[in-house]
DNA sequence: GCAAGGTC
């Protein structure tokens, strides 16, 4: 029997589609990556009995990147990234092993049906899947067609069955337009990001970002926030005047009237109007009106609307809201949360999900009434053809979901119920008055039927005192007419919800990526989220945007995305050649880049105002090995040492503190050593600023300290202070922390393992001898006389921290309890021994070095 | 270390 492989974009869709097509009679199993499932069933395909295998990928299979050697920032000129630097497709998520998985499942299959989402990205993933699977599928006979594309606009029985009945072909042009987008985004984004970062980081000490990124989505997003900031800054308040009149109603209540002129900006004119009205005793009713109006029920919920409400009403940031929604989705509480669609499919079962809510403690009454009296037809929304709107899938209580998840679920459910409720109907009445020659109006709203506002009470029309009943020709006594002086006020900072609206309007990002871009500009320290989830740009954000304005405003304008997208659409429609469009657009941006580089002084002038030059930042810490002058420690991220005399900068490990280490020097380069520490209870190690940036040995990595240095004789090196293999990680070595006394510790030089060894010892040394049982280096310990844990009066003891019965008692492994071979049963390390031949061969007691590190150390003697 | 786009 022949086999048909079918592939969807995500596991949940594979399951839904298989369920529909197999009419529920499928057998399912997990794939080799544990994430994707395979659903199998029998059926017919082009008139023959076949076995169907429905599975999925997890979004894109591949991602685009530069060849490895072009990812070395200090070796590649960013300008090369526009054309010379070759790119390659890498697996998007190596952990998922997607190519292997597809090949295992696709091996020997005769046909493939592609069920990827019906958008450009989906079309592109079709070809990623084909690239993986076609080579392992059965060879077609006599030119028979074997590759098919299913096109569907919703996950409903009819749509899916129709798609299966009318299979087409994947659209190569659409896929190519995505290839072009990927390459443009990569080349342009990385070139600008690397250039900016390197240029400014090497110049300013207090830039509060370790990465000064640029991108066609994130930069315009920042632009919106700075544009609002500029409007606030340049705002000049204006004084204006308003007439306010009070009339006395028949029930002796006073009623405030609004002036029909609203306001005037000239005091004398306002005064003139006041003079013309203030002596009037009566206000004549000129007209009355009563109109029935409706406040519309909401459209069905899509992602961006959910994110807007989450931010403005629930106080949840978009990234967090999306994570919460995803959890609710994978737990089966809501439908797929990434959709642009605000229209329920024609055959969508609205009553099913509604019935599920009929016994909910919070809204049972409303739901029961809707079910009894009949639901209202939802408003016609936009059908993007992706997924149905976000709806609740099953009832849940506050106790069940808890906290944030509950609040989001509650909103989604109330919104869903609202979409099948009636509009809110109210009466808008207004009365126009004349006082002297001036007209004033009073309006009021009274609710006729609350409709959907019953389930969305925050949307309800506020209760107001009802207007007096009066008719044209009536007159009411004037209480007073007064003139108020007011000032126009500036706009406030952009709210997240407003930003989402702007991004959506200008096509910046997608429903899935909008939260990511907003998160990016926060993480890069371009904006901060203030109360009310308003985004205030930082100095850095402002300087960047103003710099772009100055040099090339197109780099920050929202059109940067749409202009490129226009070109890409030409590829998708087959009206332009992929190579040509890509080449042309890259050329345009390459010129922009060179102009930007040449004009960077313009942005630099703005930087100088807000930030301090490297040489003027930081405090003197340790001496440079070249000029022997003090270098300055710059604490702002990324923390580093700067030698003003040599004009050199040395990066330091992040997320810890740096001190001078007893004015000790590195024997190789004469730089004074620094002591890095992750906190009082964490680990610490000495490091040489120069070696850490220019590792002296091939096996010492950049950014590491003396605890990874294989110098054979330096007293601070791994070779001298290393004890034995780490108890947890594969490659690490436990190293004595020479500064940890009197509570002595050893810490792994790769992972977080820390072992507390001895208290009350005034000296601990790593001995030249090794343990005969496990090959770890022995420790030579001098305890305090008064507090020695040793038997009798002895204060000195030499032994293995792992095997010696006295020391064993004292050692406490943090994060790694009972991982030592001594304490666990047969394991992977059994019999391998612990020692790592710290010392070069030839010294007394030393064994032949076994591993590469010590082999190298031996070589350097 | 970088972009933006999928999805987990």
UniProtKB/TrEMBL annotation:
Cite the Pfam families for this sequence. Topoisom_bac, Toprim, Zn_ribbon_TOP3B
Q: Which family does it belong to?
A: Belongs to the type IA topoisomerase family.
Instruction: Name the Gene Ontology biological process terms.
Output: DNA recombination; DNA repair; DNA topological change
Q: Provide ranges: composition bias, Basic residues.
A: 821-850
Instruction: Note the InterPro entries from the entry.
Output: Topo_IA (IPR000380), Topo_IA_2 (IPR003601), Topo_IA_AS (IPR023406), Topo_IA_cen (IPR013497), Topo_IA_cen_sub1 (IPR013824), Topo_IA_cen_sub2 (IPR013825), Topo_IA_cen_sub3 (IPR013826), Topo_IA_core_domain (IPR023405)
A GO molecular-function annotation: DNA binding
Query: What species is given as this protein's source?
Result: Vicugna pacos (Alpaca)
CDD domains (UniProt xref): TOP1Ac, TOPRIM_TopoIA_TopoIII
Catalytic activity, EC: 5.6.2.1
Q: Which UniProt keywords are present, listed alphabetically?
A: DNA-binding, Isomerase, Topoisomerase
Descriptive protein name: DNA topoisomerase
Function, as annotated, reads: Introduces a single-strand break via transesterification at a target site in duplex DNA. Releases the supercoiling and torsional tension of DNA introduced during the DNA replication and transcription by transiently cleaving and rejoining one strand of the DNA duplex. The scissile phosphodiester is attacked by the catalytic tyrosine of the enzyme, resulting in the formation of a DNA-(5'-phosphotyrosyl)-enzyme intermediate and the expulsion of a 3'-OH DNA strand. Releases the supercoiling and torsional tension of DNA introduced during the DNA replication and transcription by transiently cleaving and rejoining one strand of the DNA duplex. Introduces a single-strand break via transesterification at a target site in duplex DNA. The scissile phosphodiester is attacked by the catalytic tyrosine of the enzyme, resulting in the formation of a DNA-(5'-phosphotyrosyl)-enzyme intermediate and the expulsion of a 3'-OH DNA strand. The free DNA strand than undergoes passage around the unbroken strand thus removing DNA supercoils.
Has UniProt tagged this entry with the keyword Isomerase?
yes
- Annotated region (Disordered) at 821-852
Q: Where is the Topo IA-type catalytic domain?
A: 171-593
Q: Which GO terms describe its cellular component?
A: nucleus
Query: According to the UniProt record, what class of enzyme is this?
Result: isomerase
Its catalytic activity? ATP-independent breakage of single-stranded DNA, followed by passage and rejoining
Q: Specify the Toprim domain's residue ranges.
A: 3-153
